[in-house]
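User: structure tokens for this one?
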Amino acid sequence: MLHDRLGYSVCTDCYDQLLKHWPNVYLALENNLEIVLVVNKIDLPGAEPEPKASSQGD
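Assistant:
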């Protein structure tokens, strides 16, 4: 889990993708946009999207 200076937490399996998109998070926050959690590949066997999504909080 990564924490930024604003206290937001980001969980990721792909650190390189996080580094590429992290500036967009700041841009969205500065413009009062809502950050939306997206659960990808939920159709794969063993994906368990409900427990993973609920563990991310509101």
